[in-house]
Amino acid sequence: MRLRIAYTKIEDARYIAHLDLTRVFERAIRRAGIHMSYSEGFNPRPKISFGFALAVGTEGEREYVDVELQEEMDLGEVLARVQEQLPPGIRLLQGRALDQGAKSLMAVLNAASYRIRVPMALPIQAERLQEAVSGWLGREHVTYSRYSKKGPTDKDIRPWIKLLEAKIQGDEVIFDLEVEMGNSGSVRPEEVLASLRELENLPIELDGIQVIRTGVHVSYEGGKSSPIDTAG
Amino acid sequence: MSNNTAAEIRRQVERFLPKVLKPSRYIGSEWNVIKKDWDKTDVRMVFAFPDVYEVGMSHLGTRILYHLVNSYPEFLCERVFAPWIDMEKELREKEIPLYALESFQPLNKFDVVGFTLQYEMSYTNILNMLDMAGIPMRAEDRGPEDPWVIAGGPCAYNPEPLVGFIDFFLIGESEEQLPEVLHLVAEQKKNPVSRQDFLRKVAQVQGVYVPEFYHVTYKEDGRIEKIVAEEGVPALVEKAIVADLDQAFFPTNPVVPYLEIVHDRMMLEVMRGCSRGCRFCQAGMIYRPVRERSPETLLKQTEELVRATGYDQIALTSLSTGDYTCIQPVIHSIMEKHGAEGVGVSLPSLRVDSFDVDLAETVQKARKSGITFAPEAGSQRLRNVINKGVEEENLLQAAEAAFKKGWSTIKLYFMVGLPTETQEDIDGIIDLAKKVVNLGTKLGRRNITVTVSTSVFVPKSHTPFQWEPQEAGSSVELKQRYLREKLRDRRIKYSYHDVTTSYLEAVFAKGDRKLAPLLEWAVKHGCRFDGWSDQFRYDVWMEGLKELGIDPRFYANRAMDYDDILPWEHIGSGVSKRFLAEEHHRALQEAKTIDCRYEDCTGCGVCPSRGVQIELKG
């Protein structure tokens, strides 16, 4: 039985590295006394797979995992038993049995949305904020330099952006950002904001940035949906 | 320092935590973690492991004592590990004190900070952790508001280099001793008496060593003249010991980390102690006598561990698991009961014989990666000197069995610089490695690899070799170079331990109280994580020794006399000094000593002196 489960990764669970998440689910399912399916080969691994990695420290309000079990079970019972064995920040939100041959999360997911809160370094007027955002979105190309051990590499981040909106709340700016994701990479919310600050001279305090990934999606011409709804 | 409440520390740490390596080292909300109500407990202890989280969480003793203390409703026990360099930098820059993982309370709010001493090269981390917590390193600089800083573990058998920093040491097995100490701390909080009076009470607990009651005087040449205990404390502090291991506390709901740790599996302690009598081995002396747990207890514990952790592997741990008398029935029962849930068994310590190869074969689930044997020395003569009861024939049989069962990589572990070692013994290592390689080839195995690894012999206290010097580094290096040269073969890989680290390890293993200023100096000059080769700064240590006028050779490279007063003379493992001297003597005569488990008593002294006995279940 293949299952797709939506869950949160919030509070302390946001510090669990993506690579460690498989073990967290694997052990929770084993503690729940549910038998997982294993891969063939020399070193059998339980069949658990995720979508795009969530950066350590970023909360995810709706993430997804696929799990394969040895036997058919009642979905509600699986979710309830596994939930009992999970650390507090991981809450199971919804589940669905997958059809034979359903595509993997990595194969269907292609977009992510974020909510970003960032303190102002200097007071910003609403009008000024909207100007900055539309000015930035109006650019055909936005070059951003990523630094790695090999040195800086320039990358055009504009094509990845599907939506960027901003509003002021107290002395913070709240951004809603939606980006495309693919096997060839994506753009990080921090990069978008750093670019916005630099190119549009927007005085925001990047040190105090708080990012939440509100969801990951199956996006298509004119809309998006959850990988649970589209799974068939 | 800024506002140091737990909530404020947490708020500040969370701001930079995503930026440090492996943030889940520092967050403490793992499965099975115990978070008690701070205000509803009488005594609050923090168990401090002076190395990174992944190392500390792999240590069985840490797991046992954390859950043991928390099993008392009146006590609370939290954990802290040495923050890695990047985390230390953040904490220090932001003036955030070192905090305990469960509550984020700073260490100086606890009643007791308890360090475990697993290896000498972690000592600088102890002082550094105290400093990061804002707790004065020196006991004399601490006041009534500061925690008691205590320490236990194998290195506490020679605690002297840490005297001055630690208020008191717990020698031996702590399952019964530590709760007794904590009850005295509770009493002290309720009805406080002077520091002196409290320490005098604590000194009455079995195995508690309060160094300030022991006065050491020295001869002109630096050797110890005498160690005098004050009235009312034991002249010889004898280790605490758990008489009935089968009934002793053992946690079956250990904390399950998020990140991968060094030994990321369930641990089942099948027995304690080893009486094979290897003369270099401190563990083999200080954990006597051998006490086994019953198969019934172990199977019950396994069941509980699987339910509570969700791990898929269980390690049967002890100093030599192949010697556990019920090993086969226990392995078979575990596999029968839990194999279907994907739970496998691992055996961390194998003896050099084909029986253990069979055991390894039984538990091997998947690909046969490597199998390790430890002949320790290259020639039969030297193996007799160290009392490693292994014949070349045993090793070749074991290797043959391993090759036939499908292993293609065999690892051989040796020590270099053992007492009486000569060129012939070094050649013996080469000879053995080649014999094993040729055996594999003769058996028609392709792509075989024999990995030879050598460590440097470090003489340890409370062993028959405690009087022995460590061989000079320059000469050990020559031997390493020779081995590297002679083991050049595409089927053989050779690796060896760094000489300089082993040298300092020997200095502290055999050190005395006069080394305390050196530790302080090293920490002030940036030494920490000395057991990590990428962090170890030999040049800084050498500079410190020079500046303080301490000759490291006096400790590491000097042969001691039987009538020398040893720095650890007043600490007792139950094994008599006379027995150790006899064993040393027999070593020099290349005479073997039997294992008292299977034959006659060898007279080490632990059973009669402590009223305990060997406990076998098979």
UniProtKB/TrEMBL annotation, chain A:
<dbReference type="Pfam" id="PF10105">
    <property type="entry name" value="DUF2344"/>
</dbReference>
<dbReference type="InterPro" id="IPR018768">
    <property type="entry name" value="DUF2344"/>
</dbReference>
<protein>
    <submittedName>
        <fullName>Radical SAM-linked protein</fullName>
    </submittedName>
</protein>
<feature type="domain" description="DUF2344">
    <location>
        <begin position="2"/>
        <end position="189"/>
    </location>
</feature>
UniProtKB/TrEMBL annotation, chain B:
<dbReference type="Pfam" id="PF04055">
    <property type="entry name" value="Radical_SAM"/>
</dbReference>
<dbReference type="InterPro" id="IPR023404">
    <property type="entry name" value="rSAM_horseshoe"/>
</dbReference>
<dbReference type="Pfam" id="PF19864">
    <property type="entry name" value="Radical_SAM_N2"/>
</dbReference>
<dbReference type="InterPro" id="IPR007197">
    <property type="entry name" value="rSAM"/>
</dbReference>
<dbReference type="GO" id="GO:0003824">
    <property type="term" value="F:catalytic activity"/>
</dbReference>
<feature type="domain" description="Radical SAM core">
    <location>
        <begin position="260"/>
        <end position="497"/>
    </location>
</feature>
<dbReference type="InterPro" id="IPR058240">
    <property type="entry name" value="rSAM_sf"/>
</dbReference>
<dbReference type="InterPro" id="IPR023862">
    <property type="entry name" value="CHP03960_rSAM"/>
</dbReference>
<protein>
    <submittedName>
        <fullName>Radical SAM family uncharacterized protein</fullName>
    </submittedName>
</protein>
<dbReference type="GO" id="GO:0051536">
    <property type="term" value="F:iron-sulfur cluster binding"/>
</dbReference>
<dbReference type="InterPro" id="IPR045784">
    <property type="entry name" value="Radical_SAM_N2"/>
</dbReference>
<dbReference type="InterPro" id="IPR006638">
    <property type="entry name" value="Elp3/MiaA/NifB-like_rSAM"/>
</dbReference>
